[in-house]
Amino acid sequence: MQKLPSRRQLLPLLLPCGAVVFLFFLVQFLIRAGDTDRRFEAAAEDFFAREISSSTINLHYTLADPASAGIREYPVTLGSMDLQGDTDPSLEMLTQLLTSYDPSQLNGDNRLVYRLLQDDLENREALREFGLLQEIISPSLGVQAQLPVLLCEYTFRTKQDILDYLGLLKEIPDYFSEILTFEQEKSRQGYFMNDAAVDGILEQCASFLTEPVSSSLLETVFCRKISAFEGLSQKEADSCLSLHTKLLETCVYPAYRSLMNGLEALKGTGRNAGGLCGFSEGRDYYRWLLRSQVGTSDSPEEIGSRLLLQLQADISEMQSLLPQIASPETEPIPDGNTQPEDILRTLQKAISADFPPLQVEDYEIKYVDDCLEDYLSPAFYLTPPADTSSPNAIYINRAASMQGIELFTTLAHEGFPGHLYQTVYFASTAPSLVRYLYEPGGYVEGWATYIESYAYSYADLDPALARLLWLNRSLNLCLYALMDLGIHYQGWTEADTGEFLSQAGITDAETTGEIYQYIVETPANYLKYYYGCLNFMDIREAVKLQEGDAFDLKTFHQELLELGPMPFYILEEELGI
Question: InterPro entries per the record (predicted)?
Answer without folding.
Answer: DUF885 (IPR010281)
